[in-house]
Amino acid sequence: MQNSLMRITVDIPDDDWDDLRKITGESKKSPAISKAVTEYIKRAKAKEFGRLLREGSFDFPMTNDELEKLS
After folding, report:
1. Which of 45, 43, 19 is nearest to 33 (CA)?
2. How far, rounded to the nearest angstrom, does the alpha carbon of residue 29 sit from its chain's CA centroid?
């Protein structure tokens, strides 16, 4: 699958920009914002996966004890 890019204009307060650069380790705007967006999406997907696990959306044929015995 080929990634396409979207060019946008974003207003970011200076304090937030400074924090974003420090957190991402990027000094240029596009890589810093891209990295932040990617990380946000990964965390949102992990949160949703955790919610689905807690709600019992997945059917596992073995108990936790049975799984641990396999290790």
Report:
1. 19
2. 19
CB 44 within 8 A of CB 36: no
In a domain, 68, yes or no: no
Provide the residue count of the chain. 71
For residue 15, tell me if it sits in a domain. no
pTM: 0.69
pLDDT in tens, the chain (71 residues): 668 888 999 999 999 999 999 999 999 999 999 999 999 999 999 999 999 988 888 877 788 888 898 87
Rounded to a whole number of angstroms, the distance between the first and last alpha carbons of the chain is: 36
The DSSP 8-state label assigned to residue 28 in this structure reads S
Total number of domains constituting the chain: 1
